[in-house]
DNA sequence: CAAGAGTCCTACATTACATCA
DNA sequence: GCTGATGTAATGTAGGACTCT
């Protein structure tokens, strides 16, 4: 058939990454999936697997016996959390059903440093998990698969947030740079307009440097150093202010800033 | 083949808890 | 010890892709 499950996961994330601005980290998935591409997983093999462990459902009592019970020997469940359970025996906000062993409110365990480190390492290699990887990690870390999944979800979110912040900073700087450029160009235009209005002024000037106009962006290189290092569009066109007649020259320079 | 239901996965928003200053 | 800020585990929801009937 059929798209293999891990490929499905990959295609999903990459597809959505194109529609929105996903982090490029996800591209690493290719390599990771290649690692696992050789493993089994027809739909027939997936189904029973997923049926057995539905990572999306809330941890049932069975799960807790099976996994949560061993889920946090390494984890540091806060000593306060138990007290909270005492504080809010009713479970407060609607999470009253199948919680762990009668404990109603959700407990928030802190992952140990070792667990976090392993997850981080794994995340470096692949930002999404296929079910097999998820299960392997969860076994390795003594966590529920759902916890591994959640960790990756949150990690992706953090990555994206950070990337957004970086992008934002970059855009700010870019904006500032463009503003500065705009100011410079406005000033340049003003000067040129002033020149145009009083041609007699430049007639008394010693033949200065040759003004250089980039034919691509029509920018004037204002000084010698600019000419020495003309911006890199095309071969600059040199315009001598003494060329005849003066008026066309000025007209040629009368360009709006872009 | 098309349509609809069911399943799975994801991003995203939000909540709730843990920790620290 | 209390409190607000911060980090993050966990939850809820919506939407897309796929399979099956």
Can you describe this structure in just a few lines?
This protein has 11 helices and 5 strands, in the order ααααβαβααααββαβα.
User: What would the CATH topology of the largest domain be?
Assistant: Arc Repressor Mutant, subunit A
Strand order of the largest sheet: 4-3-5
Instruction: Determine the mean pLDDT.
Output: 58
Q: What low-confidence regions span 5 or more consecutive residues with pLDDT below 50?
A: 1-104, 222-258
Tell me the structural class. Answer: mainly alpha
- According to CATH, the homologous superfamily of the largest domain is Homeodomain-like
In one word, what is the shape? Answer: rod-shaped
SS elements, strand count: 5
Helix content: 55-70%
Distance between the termini: 55 Å
If helices are DSSP runs of H or I spanning 4 or more residues, what is the number of helices?
11
Largest sheet: 3 strands, antiparallel
Element-by-element helix/strand order:
HHHHEHEHHHHEEHEH
């Amino acid at each position: 058939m059929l798209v293999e499950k891990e490929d499905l996961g990959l295609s999903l994330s990459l597809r959505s990454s194109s529609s929105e601005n996903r982090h490029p980290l996800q591209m690493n998935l290719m390599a990771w999936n290649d690692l696992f591409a050789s493993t089994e997983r027809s739909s027939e093999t997936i189904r029973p697997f997923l049926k057995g462990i539905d990572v999306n459902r809330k941890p049932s009592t069975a799960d807790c016996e099976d996994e949560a019970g061993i889920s946090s020997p390494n984890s540091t469940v806060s000593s306060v959390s138990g007290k909270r359970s005492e504080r809010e025996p009713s479970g407060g906000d609607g999470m009253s059903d199948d919680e762990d062993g009668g404990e109603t409110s959700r407990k928030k365990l802190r992952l140990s440093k070792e667990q976090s480190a392993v997850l981080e390492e794994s995340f470096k290699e692949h930002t999404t998990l296929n079910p097999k990887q998820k299960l392997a990690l969860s076994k390795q870390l003594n966590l529920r698969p759902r916890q591994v999944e959640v960790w990756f979800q949150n990690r992706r979110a953090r990555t994206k947030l950070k990337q957004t912040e970086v992008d934002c900073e970059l855009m700010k700087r870019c904006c500032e740079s463009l503003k500065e450029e705009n100011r410079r160009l406005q000033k340049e235009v003003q000067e040129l307009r002033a020149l145009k209005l009083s041609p007699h002024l430049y007639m008394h000037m010693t033949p200065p440097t040759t003004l250089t106009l980039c034919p691509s962006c029509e920018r004037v290189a204002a000084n010698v150093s600019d000419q020495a290092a003309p911006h890199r569009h095309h071969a600059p066109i040199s315009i001598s202010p003494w060329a005849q007649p003066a008026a066309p020259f000025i007209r040629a320079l009368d360009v709006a800033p872009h």
